[in-house]
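User: Here's a structure from my thesis project, written as structure tokens. My advisor, Dr. K., wants to see whether a designed sequence matches the one we expressed. Can you design one independently, without my sequence as a hint?
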């Protein structure tokens, strides 16, 4: 029997989860509201909040799992990528608890965690996980990648953004419309009642499977600038249609490259992960592609789309089975390492 405690602290959510033999026992997340007034995550404030939250969050996760800390087999923690100050809090706590309990530590790549969230079981009978090899579209505020997943530990990035990520495009365009932060969920809500064909935005033409969203973002900004000159109330009068057009364009770009990769590699098993996978338009696009192209799709429950510790715990569980532990000298990393 393997009981793994997962700790996630890569950005502004402090999270802890417990998994026993692949089955989730608890998943606790403490979000930080302080960043909303700044229009984005402030790294220094995030790390301070992690210091305040990590002990009660871990304690609650262990209690909700119905175990004692002495029952833990290992501690898995997010080593990176992410904000260095935030990662240091989680890494340091994991090292301290590992030393106190004399159990091994397991370092987890945050991006691997998002992919492996599809393997979390909520009960022993769950058998919804993707079959290897599969493609995973990982989309969030910081990443837009197409990953070829050959096994739990063999993943290859075959396409990624060369500038802005999809989630960043959502948030920044929402910000210039005055929709607040985070903007993605607001755009999604307004897009449901808007006309996605009302405004035409530039789509990038990138070879291979890579993405680019900076041109689309600039196109959107110029559209607002030109129309506001004619009518100062342009955004307020058209915000639903603007959101719908923006969302449709971003999703079209994401799906075009993914569709090409799936065809070239002859893979029908396709998953989506990351914060933007909560977007209703993207989920609908996946369901549409499943019907049109015979894909077997895997869309995570909403609770596993944003940063969470359950995905870190399940990643740690698979590494535990391979005796793949890390040393006390393991240092966090802020940049993408796959």
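Assistant: Designed independently from the structure alone:
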């Amino acid at each position: 029997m393997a009981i793994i405690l997962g700790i996630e602290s890569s950005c502004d959510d402090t999270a802890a989860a417990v998994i026993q033999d692949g089955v989730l026992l608890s998943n606790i997340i403490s979000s930080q509201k302080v960043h909303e007034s700044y229009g984005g995550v402030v790294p220094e404030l995030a790390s301070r909040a992690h210091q305040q939250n990590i002990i009660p969050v871990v304690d609650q996760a262990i209690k909700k799992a119905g175990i004692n800390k002495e029952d833990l087999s290992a501690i898995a923690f997010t080593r990176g990528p992410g904000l260095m100050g935030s990662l240091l809090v989680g890494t340091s706590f994991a090292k301290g608890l590992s030393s106190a309990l004399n159990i091994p530590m397991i370092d987890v790549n945050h991006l691997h965690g998002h992919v492996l969230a599809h393997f979390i079981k909520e009960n022993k009978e769950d058998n919804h996980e993707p079959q290897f090899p599969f493609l995973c579209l990982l989309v969030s505020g910081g990443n837009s990648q197409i990953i070829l997943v050959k096994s739990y530990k063999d993943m290859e990035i075959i396409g990624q953004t060369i500038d802005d990520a999809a989630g960043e495009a959502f948030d920044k365009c929402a910000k210039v419309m005055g929709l607040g932060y985070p903007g993605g969920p607001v755009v999604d809500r307004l897009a449901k009642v808007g006309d996605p064909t009302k405004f035409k935005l530039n789509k990038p033409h990138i070879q291979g499977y890579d993405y680019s969203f900076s041109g689309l973002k600039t196109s959107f900004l110029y559209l607002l600038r030109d129309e506001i000159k004619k009518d100062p109330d342009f955004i307020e009068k058209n915000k639903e249609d603007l959101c719908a057009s923006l969302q449709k364009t971003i999703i079209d770009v994401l799906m075009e490259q993914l569709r090409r990769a799936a065809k070239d590699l002859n893979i029908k098993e396709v998953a989506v992960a990351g914060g933007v996978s909560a977007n209703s338009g993207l989920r609908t696009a996946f369901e549409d592609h499943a019907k049109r192209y015979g894909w077997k799709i895997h869309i995570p429950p909403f609770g596993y789309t944003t940063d969470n510790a359950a995905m870190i715990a399940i990643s740690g569980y698979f590494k535990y089975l391979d005796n793949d532990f890390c040393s006390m000298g393991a240092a966090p990393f802020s940049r993408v390492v796959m």
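When you compare it with your expressed construct, this may help: The radius of gyration is 20 Å.
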